[in-house]
Amino acid sequence: MHVYGDNRLDRYDITGIVLYFCLVVAVGILSMCRSKRHTVSGYFLANKESSWYMIGASVFASNIGTEHFIGLAGSGAAVGISVGAFEINGLVVLQLLAWVFLPVYIASKAYTLPEYMKKRFGGSRIRIYLACMSLTLYIFTKISVALYAGILFVDQSLQWNRWLAILLLLGMTAVSSMTGGLKAAMYTEVLQAISSLLGAGLIFVLAFIKIGGYKYLLRQYPLASSNVTYSVDGKECNLPLPDAFVMLREPADPNLPWVGFLLGQTTVSIWYWAADQMMVQRMLSAKSLSHAKGGALVAGYFKFAFLFVMIIPGMIGRVLWPDEVACANPDVCEEVCGNQPAAAPTLSTPNW
C-alpha cells in the first residue's frame, strides 16, 4: 500500500518505540511477579490494594484507546468540538458510579458483575446471560474497533503486515492479562495513561505553535475547505460547520442534538461506566471507598484534559491540511487508509 506523505520513521522514532515496548514488557513482568494472583480476590481485584491514583489512571487507560486517538481527532476535524460532549458525559456518569453504584457493589462482596447479578436476583441464567452478552459486545464494539484503529496507525507509521500486527497485539494482551491478573493489567495501564497524556499533550502544544494560537484557529477553521468539492447525497461536504465551536446543538441538528444526546447517550453511559465489568472491576479493587472515589475524580480530570489534547489538534489539522483532511476525495482516503468513506477526517491524525 502506498503511504501518503512522509510517514517513514527515522532512527529516533524507532528507538523511542523500542524503549517504550521494553518498558511496557518490564512493567508487565514485574507486576506479574508481585501480584498475589493465587486467590480469587488477588486475581480479579488485585487483592483490594489499589490506590486512588492507580485506579484513576487505569480507568482512564481502559477507556482510551487507539480508536479515541483517531476518532476524536477525526471528528474534531469534521464537525468541531461537539464530540467532546461524550467525554464530559462520561466524566459525570463516572462520579455516579463512585458515589451511588459502587457502595452497593462493595456491600454485595461480589468479584464480578455477573456474580453480583446472581446474588441480587438468584439463579444462574441471568449470570450466564450477562457474561455472554458482555463478551459479545466487547468483541464486536470494542476489541474489533480498537484493533482496526490500532492497525491503521501501525500500518501508516511502521508499514507492518496487518495480520501479523493483530496477532502480536492480541497475544501480548492475552498473556499479560491471563498470567498477571488485574494488578498486571493496572500497572501497564498506568504506564499507558501517562504516555497517552504526554504524547497527546505534546501534539497539542506543537499544533498550537504551528498554527499560531487559539485566536488564529477561531478565524481559520471556518475557512478550512478543500479545493475539491465532494458531494454526498447532493450536499457539499467540504464546508466547515458554522457551529463547529458549539458542543450541544439544536434539537434538529444531525450531528449532536442536545435533547437526543442527553436522553440517549446518558443511558448508554450509565451502562458503560456503572455496569460494565471492565470499569467496575477496577473500582472494586480500591483499598477503600474513599480511594475509589478519588480514582473516579482522577479519571474524570484525565478525560476532561483529553477533550482538549485530541479534539483541538484534529481541528488544527483541518486548518493546516485542508485538501487532505477537509472532506478529501475518497480516492485520497483509499490511498492513505485503505478504505473509501464519504470523508477523510481520520487523515488528520497520521499527518501529525
TrEMBL record:
Protein's UniProt keywords contain Transmembrane helix: yes
Endpoints of the signal sequence: none
Subcellular location field: Membrane
Domain of life per record: Eukaryota
Transmembrane segments: 12-31, 52-82, 88-107, 128-154, 160-178, 190-209, 256-275, 296-316
GO CC field: plasma membrane
GO MF annotations, alphabetized: D-glucose:sodium symporter activity
Major localisation: membrane
Keyword set, alphabetical order: Membrane, Transmembrane, Transmembrane helix
Membrane topology classification: Multi-pass membrane protein
Annotated PANTHER family: SODIUM_MYO-INOSITOL COTRANSPORTER, SOLUTE CARRIER FAMILY 5
NCBIfam families attached to this UniProt entry: sss
Homology family: Belongs to the sodium:solute symporter (SSF) (TC 2.A.21) family.
Protein's UniProt name: Sodium/myo-inositol cotransporter
